[in-house]
TrEMBL record:
Keywords for the protein's UniProt record, in alphabetical order: Cell membrane, Membrane, Transmembrane, Transmembrane helix, Transport
Transmembrane region(s): 34-56, 127-147, 159-183, 203-222, 262-288, 308-330
Pfam family, one: BPD_transp_1
Claim: rRNA-binding is one of the keywords in the record: no
Major site of localization recorded for this protein: membrane
Family label: Belongs to the binding-protein-dependent transport system permease family.
Organism annotation: Streptomyces physcomitrii
Annotated compartments: Cell membrane
Region (Disordered) residue spans: 1-20
Protein name as it appears in the record: ABC transporter permease
Span of domain ABC transmembrane type-1: 123-331
Amino acid sequence: MAEVSPIAKTGPVADPSAGAATAPRRAGRLALRLALTVGYRLVMLTVLLALVFAAVELLPGDAAGAASERGESAAGIAERRQLLGLDRPLWERFGEWMTALPTGDLGTSARGQRVTELLVDPLPNTLVLAVSAFVLTLLLSLLLGCWTAARPGRLADRLVSHASTAAFAVPEFVVAALLLLLLSLWTGWLPAVTVTGGDGRPASWTMLIMPVLALVVPQTGWNTRVVRGALADRAADPHVEAAHFDGLPVSRILLRHQLPGAAPAIATGIATSTGLLFGGAVVVETLFNYPGVGAVLAGAVAARDTPLIAGVVICAGGVISLVLLAADLVRHVTLGGRA
């Protein structure tokens, strides 16, 4: 019998340069995917802003009429309309606003003030509120989702499942009203409204508690179900079942085997809920008299102030797009370019 060479027994020797060659290709695919994603987000933001301009145009009245005083003549209103550029076609006004946007110019409001100056104080307040709610939602959702995933079918799993469904079904303004009754009117633990200091910020950090909780409760309900479902899907993976057969601790299996595989679905679900969180922030800010962009947006809609409305939308849309981009990056890196 002919002797079989060691090379034939072991198979072809792996080329060490193969792994090094794939690294640049992966980086190139990642860069291309990020560029396409950024381009897609920019196109969607442009479409959204165009819809904002069109929607305000379809509302009854305009900024010139909304700013007019009682008894003002039609000639005076027409003159103001010309000063505001409302006599020009909609597409021309939109194109001018979009052309100035890359330079950071958000235009001039109907009252003659720069939109950036009107947003410089309330926007950071809204970001503090939204980011605080987002971080707390993320932590609670991961904690509750992992805790119930480690106890599938048990009483704790069923209770959290029902509670999370009920929490997501309750709108933010209902949660805010209940918090006002419980934590302010009945117990007096927290102030019912937000009082601002001389710098335009809430006078005390305790005034953030109820607005943040009003946003966290519904979003935690939704994202807990997302985390629980993603972990349940990964529980059927062969390597997870093998880890159970090997007798590994449940917590180790959950954190080292299920959670990494569930990361793309969890990141996508939590990032998608960011838009709902910002939308709820507008309502919550109004209820608690919080000095954010909610009051600015409400006043801008009443005044038919298109540049100010568009300024609020582009700021919120930019933040949401960044969160979605981060979720896309997590998904791509975790799946190794397969998604």
